[in-house]
Automatic annotation (TrEMBL):
It comes from Adhaeretor mobilis. Gene3D superfamilies: P-loop containing nucleotide triphosphate hydrolases. GO terms for molecular function: hydrolase activity. This is Soj-like protein. Keywords: Hydrolase. Its EC number is 3.6.-.-. The keyword Hydrolase applies. InterPro entries: AAA_dom, DNA_Partitioning_ATPase, P-loop_NTPase. Residues 3-172 form the AAA domain.
Length: 248
């Protein structure tokens, strides 16, 4: 059975898409047959791998999901692109619980050929995020090292626990990741301490530093490991991928 990791946080700007893209690329390089599924209507994971969004969202389209998979510049990495269709986004955003379960089953039923699937969620607690959680075996939450880092996490964890309590669910907490880490700021150390004291071992040892190379890499359609392999960001994501592999 595929390992399906949902990258989710209701807050935007926390490095969610960047993390999904770089973990997907890192696992593919490590020999894992990997799929990056873009469920965010902003489609940044799609364009970050040098592709254009689809005209119709694959979860709305009637054709088999696998027909929407695209090859990428890495042999072991495939992409399920996002779509910016307002009609599809509206349909997904207003899905009922029953429809969300149907979408989750549609998504989960097409992932068996991959070792690992990374799902990039929109920054919300809406139906798309719930669909991703219903399809996943793990949820990974990036948290930016800022004053409001813990804000909203109670709601996010509540949704995760609701999903975990469903009889058919196999969802577990995969980890919490500290992003945009700046050792020069006292606030960063405070957030790090609070998060680790509250969540304990679920927090990844690896932290993702502020690094311009991490921000630049998607504009070149590459992971930071390929774009700037000697950068601090590249080293951090390599270490994170090792942790993700060790947590199987």
């Amino acid at each position: 059975m595929s390992r399906v990791i949902c990258i989710a946080n209701q807050k935007g700007g926390v490095g969610k898409t960047t993390t999904a893209l770089n973990i997907a690329c890192g696992l593919a390089v490590a020999g894992q047959k990997t799929l990056l599924a873009d469920l965010d209507p902003q489609c940044n994971a799609t364009t970050g791998l040098g592709h254009e969004p689809d005209e119709r969202h694959a979860l709305i389209d009637t054709k088999p999901l696998r027909e929407s998979f695209r090859d990428t510049y890495l042999e072991n990495l495939s992409l399920l692109p996002g779509a910016r269709s307002f009609e599809d986004v509206d349909a997904l955003a207003n899905s009922s619980d029953t429809r969300s379960r149907m979408l989750a089953a549609h998504l989960a039923g097409s992932l068996g050929s991959f070792d690992t699937v990374l799902i990039d969620c929109p920054p919300s607690l809406g139906p798309l995020t719930r669909t991703a959680l219903s399809s996943a075996s793990e949820v990974l939450m990036p948290i930016q090292c800022e004053y409001f880092a813990m804000e909203g996490l109670t709601q996010m964890i509540g949704i995760i626990r609701q999903t975990m309590d469903r009889p058919e669910s196999r969802l577990e907490f995969g980890g919490i990741l500290l992003t945009m880490y700046d050792t020069a700021l006292e606030l960063t150390a405070e957030v790090d301490r609070e998060v680790r004291e509250f969540f304990g071992e679920i927090v990844f040892h690896t932290v993702i530093p502020r690094d311009v190379a991490v921000s630049e890499a998607p504009s070149h359609g590459r992971s930071v490991m390929d774009y700037a392999p000697r950068s601090r960001g590249a080293r951090a994501y390599v270490e994170l991928c090792q942790e993700v592999l060790e947590r199987v």
